[in-house]
Amino acid sequence: NSVLELKKVTNVKQQVVAGTIYYITLEANEGGGADKVYEAKVWVKPWLNFKELQEFKFVGNA
């Protein structure tokens, strides 16, 4: 396991469902070397205090 250091968020899209799904593109670094691009999908239902990371995947090099 490695620790990712967030460098920057490059894009955010949202979709309203039973709550909101956020599609987040970000650049992160694993402690040396080039930054890499990842995509995350987060489902939020604020009235239930619910947050769930549904997907987190490597996309490519920054």
UniProtKB/TrEMBL annotation:
Source superkingdom: Eukaryota
Domain Cystatin: residue ranges: 2-58
Claim: DNA repair is one of the keywords in the record: no
Keyword Oxidoreductase assigned: no
GO molecular function, one term: cysteine-type endopeptidase inhibitor activity
Keywords: Protease inhibitor, Thiol protease inhibitor
Coiled coil: none
Matches recorded under InterPro entries: Cystatin (IPR027214), Cystatin_dom (IPR000010), Cystatin_sf (IPR046350), Prot_inh_cystat_CS (IPR018073)
A Pfam family hit: SQAPI
Similarity comment: family membership: Belongs to the cystatin family. Phytocystatin subfamily.
PANTHER family: CYSTATIN FAMILY MEMBER, MULTICYSTATIN
This protein's name: Cysteine proteinase inhibitor
Species whose genome carries this gene: Genlisea aurea
